[in-house]
Amino acid sequence: MAVKKKAAVKNLDRLEVFKILADANRFRAIEILSRAGKKGVSVSDLSDELKMNHSAASHLLGYLHAREIVIFKKEGRAVCYAFAATPVARKLVKLQKLD
Fold first, then answer.
1. CA 36 to CA 20: how far, in whole Å?
2. Domains annotated on the chain, with CATH
3. CB–CB of 63/19 below 8 Å?
């Protein structure tokens, strides 16, 4: 029975990846985050690159953080986001490198 549960979690991860990539802004944000690597991207830099207001970029990053796709660290008043070491985040990074 435990094997079926693992398969269900694996499928959920795949479905979550496609849900995340379905939104154009999230897709572009993931591209930007993958280029930034471990150093991450600040909310301000991401909002500038996506040409959206700071609040919308923060909301987008909050969505990704809630799904454990990104982690954040504070550097003074700035908050920088980078990919987390989770299965879904690793799949997103792999998909970005398929170009």
1. 19
2. 2-96 (1.10.10.10)
3. no
The number of angstroms, rounded, from the C-alpha of 28 to the middle of its chain's C-alpha atoms is 10
Residue 34 Cα to chain centre, angstroms: 9
Axis crossing angle, helix 2-21 with helix 24-36, rounded to the nearest 10: 100
Contact 94, 79 (CB under 8 A): no
pTM of the model: 0.76
3-state secondary structure at position 1: coil
- 40-68 pLDDT, tens digit per residue, is 999 999 999 999 999 999 999 999 998 88
Name the β-bridge partners of 71.
82
- pLDDT tens digit sequence for 87-97: 877 777 777 66
Instruction: Give the CA dihedral 50, 56, 58, 61, nearest 10 degrees.
Output: -70
